[in-house]
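Tutorial, part two.
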Amino acid sequence: MTNPFRNYLFAFALLCAAALPAHAAEPAEPTLSLPPGMAALARAADDAWNRRDPAAMVAFFADDGTSTIGKTELKGKAQMLDYYTGSFRNLPPGLTHRTVVRRVERIGGMVATDNAVYIEAPDGAQGRRVLREFFTFSLLRPVAGGWEFVAVRATPLAPAQGS
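Running the prediction step on this input gives:
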């Protein structure tokens, strides 16, 4: 049986495609030229995770999309919906997801991104502390009005100091 607390930490790490504001303790974010609409996709995906909305999360994926979160492999929207529904069920309040794009590369008609992903909690001093960090690779293709995830690979990094 998988640990639901661990699952929620992985749940959104796979949906990372663009930079969001970082807190002051981190190094400066790289300046990247993102394809039009990609930053909006990342903000919308982060917002869906923060609302704990599994259907909205799955809507960002291609029908034939795949995702690997740690050792969990998901193929297609039905598996992803089941995964997010279960992951969000026991998610503690106050946790948020934040993505920082580190690299963008065009590959034919698609775009690949390397990202840092942070699962954060309130620190008690009106700030946030990182509970977990992930390296996430995403492959996206253009669709009418934006982008969709074709493949996402989220790898958890060592737990944050003091967690």
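Residues 38-51 form the longest helix (14 residues). In part three we will examine how such features are distributed along the chain.
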